[in-house]
Structure formats: structure tokens, C-alpha cells
Specification:
By secondary structure, the chain is mainly alpha-helical. The chain has one domain (2-222). It has helices at residues 2-10, 16-35, 40-60, 67-90, 113-130, 140-164, 177-196, 204-222; strands at residues 97-99, 168-170. The longest helix is centred in the C-terminal third of the chain and has 25 residues, at 140-164. The chain is globular and about 45 Å long.
Amino acid sequence: MRDILKNSRNNYFLSEKNTIILLISMYLAGIIGLRWDITREVFKFLVPFNLIFTAFVVVFFHKNWNKYFVFFIVFTVFAGFFVEVLGVETGKIFGKYHYQTTLGIKILQVPPIIGLNWLVLIYVVGVFCASFDTKIMQNKIIQIVLGASVMTFLDFLIEPIAIKYHFWAWDEPQIPLQNYVAWWFISCFLLIIFRYLPFEKNNKIAIVVLLLQFLFFLALNLI
């Protein structure tokens, strides 16, 4: 399996450079497509496929797979999904909200793809925080706290867009502060798993994806 992934990554058409160009093109098309009335519904339909492709890309370019990385993938996907199930069912984690249609089919009132979204965000943020060379940033606790803060700020950018394009909706007039507090603590927990499991934390594509996520949601908030 490792040799197959290594050989695939060395293939010209699946190179890091070509993948970065493709990702930039996809996210730019998404910004334009969601903003134009004539193409909005098509691009809303494509949102789950974008998430699946992004998840595939970040794990595809992960180096040196081992059993700990596989555990991280499985655990994060299921933890992300089931915390959302509890959140929707009880309203006591993030506040009272429900998922709408854009993220696709739902199981237990939650689109399964939301687990992939948690995986992508935790992974790319974790890799970003592990990439700093300074002594203070090599401290695992600082990386986890910074990562949870980055996750929460990203959620702050995501929320208005998610509501506007029918990813989910809040049952309250305003997004509750509880949502951001919960995001921070859940992110901390998942980043602890990421940081302390012994697998490679270096992935150039992951950092590109994080940057594109920020630019994508920032652009949609501003234009």
C-alpha cells in the first residue's frame, strides 16, 4: 500500500504542483459559481463532491502511512460525525440547529460527509501548527491551543456562508456563543489525538488546503 501511494504521488499527473493548481482552480470556481445566481444551485450540488475530493487529496499526499494515522482518520471521522449527531439531537453542544440540503443525504439528521469535514480541518490545521520551526511553537500544548483557535476563527468565517447556502440553519436568531466555545474544546480534543499519535506531520498540500479554505470563506463573506 505504501509503495502504491508513493509511486502514485510521483506520477506527473498526480504531482503536488498539478494538484495545487487543480485545488486553486476548484476553489476559485466555487467562489464564482456560488456568487452567480445562474450557477448557484449547480455549485451547491457540487459542495459534497468538493469535500470528498479535498479529503482524498490531503490523505493521498500524507507521507509514511502507519496504523496510528489510519486510527486518526477513522476516529476523527466518526467522532466528528457523532458529536454533530448529539449536537443536533440535544441542542446542548453547539446550540439548537439543524442540517439542510446542501451537504447531501443525512443519517440520524446529520450528513455523513460532515465527519470528513472535521477530518480535513483538524488535519490541515494540525499540519499547519506543526510546521513552525521556532522553539516555542514546537511545544505540543501551544500547537494544540493555537490550532483550536485557528479552527474556531475558521468556523467564524464558515457560519454565515453555511447559513446563506443552506448547509445548516440555527433555530435561534443569532449564532450562539456556545457554538464557538464547543468548537474550540472539541478541536482541542481532536488536535490532542493528532499531535500525540506518532505519525508524520508534514504535508505541503494540507497547508495549501488550509489557506484555500480561509480565502474561500473570506471571499464569500466579503463579496
